[in-house]
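Obj.: predict assembly geometry.
Materials: sequence records (below).
Method: joint structure prediction, all chains together.
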Amino acid sequence: MSAAPLSEIGGGAGWLPEASSFAPRVDRVFDGLLAASAGMALFLTVLTLVILVRYRRGSAGSRKAVRIATWKIETAWIVATTAVFLFFFVQGTSVYLEMRRIPAGIEAINVVGRQWMWDVRYPGGRREFNRLHVRLNTPVRLLLSSEDVIHSFFVPAFRLKQDLVPGKVVEAWFDPTRAGTYMLYCAQYCGTAHAEMTGTVVVLAPDQFAAWEGGRDGGAESGSPGLAGAARGSAIFQKYGCAQCHGDAAGSRAPRLAGVYRGPVRLADGRFVLADDQFLHDAILRAPKCAVAGYAMTMPTYDGVIPEGDVLDLISYIKALPPAPASQVP
Amino acid sequence: MPPLNPPAPPSRGYLSDGTTVASWLCTRDHKRIALLYLFTITFFFLIGASAAALMRWELTRPNGDLMTSDTYNRLFTLHGVVMVWFFLIPSIPAVLGNFVLPLAIGARDVAFPRLNLASWYIFVCGGLIALYAIVVGGVDTGWTFYTPYSSTYSNSNVMVMATGIFVAGFSSIATGLNFIVTVHKLRAPGLTWFRLPLFVWAIYATSIILVLATPVLAITLALMALERGFGVGIFDPKLGGDPLLFQHLFWFYSHPAVYIMILPGMGVVSELVSCFSRKKIFGYKVMAFSILSIAGLGFLVWGHHMFVSSQSVYAGVVFSLLSFLVSVPSAIKVFNWIATLHRGSITFGTPLLYALGFLALFTIGGLTGIFLATLAVDVHLHDTYFVIAHFHYIMVGGGVMAYMGGIHYWWPKISGRMFPEGWARFSAVTIFVGFNLTFFPQFLLGYLGMPRRYHIYPAEFQTLNVISSAGAAVLAVGYLVPLCYLTWSFFHGKDAGPNPWNATGLEWQTPSPPPSHNFEQTPVVTRPPYDYPPL
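Observations (raw structure tokens):
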């Protein structure tokens, strides 16, 4: 698909709207940098022009040596430059740290990048391509992963960019503060149709969002409606024979999966890790690297066998399992 | 009655010592080798510039309908690879460094003249392999060769191109080594370290980077080739590798490579500003140490290319801080150049026009670099046209302006002839105007969100893209005019004499063009650099 014109998209005259909670904060840092840089550039330009005219050959300007010691001048502008730079470093870093503090307890939307499309899977099971619907003023957590090469999830209106790295599950979030439709670009070069790997993010007011959620009017782009990720995951769980070892009837050959999500896991090498999305993802695809203490490692690697989207559905299934009694948590 | 023996034409120094093709291809004279590089990299510049012209032509339209996506992707890869490795990196070091460095330290040649000639042959071999990769179908990975795209997914001639770059790297290493030894061992009597011109300091620091960083690039490309050719899992997660490892290794070379491209320019500009204001450089020692500290700190900032790559938040913070720190010495240098002009006696020769252009463009490039070092802001600007504009202001606005300024400044020494001043000033101004017209709109495009490596874009971005393409046409004129008048002046310019700019520096104390052995008598240095008479 080719990119939609920006004029059809929020923000009016093509200027960049501030459509997320941290967009204005990023812009204030940007504006500060812009003011300081423009001021500095203007000052240096005027200063240089004055010097060029005043001290052109044959002019009357005084050529007497300046009486301040050179080292004092050098020290002054080294200190001043460093101080200004540190000021902007602190500003930019503090906003960034907040941008990376991902709010807990939000159900995540899975976004899979693939040459050359965006595959969006909602917790409710709905699936869309190249379009992401979100509710106004409600923080959105994304779990980004890639099936092939590196892509990058870039929504300029949100000032949000995050690479999708194959083999990893990367978290990102935003809080949309302005209804509208915004451009989504792939910002990391990913091959032939990189420039066409675009989409839109639709921010809907709560009532419209509820209507969208309830309706099936997502058009041809929302596939397999109604079948929840966890339900799909259950089917995949059977398909790949996971239940033979991890199922309820399987005895103690492999770790129980109920309640494992977000809990501590002791590994065979003695480390304790948190069973987050990244861990489950790795444990499914490359089990030998994630061997859990107390079990013989008999699970094969599924890397290249189970597609990325199915892995995410399996993770949804694991998350949805009813928690086990406390005594069974490994 | 005419004289029986017409007077012999004036000797053209090293240029008249042998005029056969073999006398050039087998020469061990650093000055002739410099000219060999000059022809070679001018050829590559024209190839890289042609690719850029085709890209700018495509970008005048938002629909991407003038060429296929695969063609466009091959063009920007070609442009990046050729301009970085076959033009910018060798530009000032291999041409002006080779020609001027031995003269500037009062030496008869570089330390290893045969190795110097071998470097050129290695460079040409690498260049021919890269050209072969282009001719048989090109490469579509971008000059950054990010894995796993380059190692697994790309269906283009990645292996051949990587081989070309790998081979050319050895030329960089040998040249760097040669210059380091030359500066250590062959300085004229009395030429102490703090009597060295800043151009020599800059080439010396650059050589250290060349020797230390280039092997890492060779390793990185070799690992990528191992994965692509033999399926050894290093970078592709499907083979058990880590794609970010490639980025760490690649930028560990490629960020210092930015300083390979800009430090020599800083050296050239120091010579030009001092000479055309008839004043010693302000804060000479601070200038020398800032060159060294940029070269050192430049090795510690590679992670600022990876703020959104999913590297750890803390790594991002540290790399951001170090990136701010590496800009301090650059800022200090700008202040010192302006302070050098202050209370000077300024004449506006072409070399100074280029130096002033450098000052303006490098300042803009440096200030926008601060935006990109700022974490929160970089998240938005990364991989957009803002980055494209920023690094072109540094590498072209800085590096190429300095290169052009240096070529004009030392042209009388290289050729023994003067260039036509009027045409030269015209082209310097044209390049400055064309450059800003081309690249300033790209800052706006990037801020508005236009990603790099996109030839299909929202229609709202068209106006700015058309302005940018028009600027590229102006810029092309600015680059072609010097090619014509410099060629003309090489044969027909008026004699320059040994020191047309009345400059200090040992290279001006020998005839133009210099004899093959550079100096009739080894000069003895008794005075500090830039020792212009008091005004």
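Conclusions so far: Residues 108-223 of chain A form a domain with the Immunoglobulin-like fold (CATH 2.60.40.420).
To do: check interface contacts against the pulldown list.
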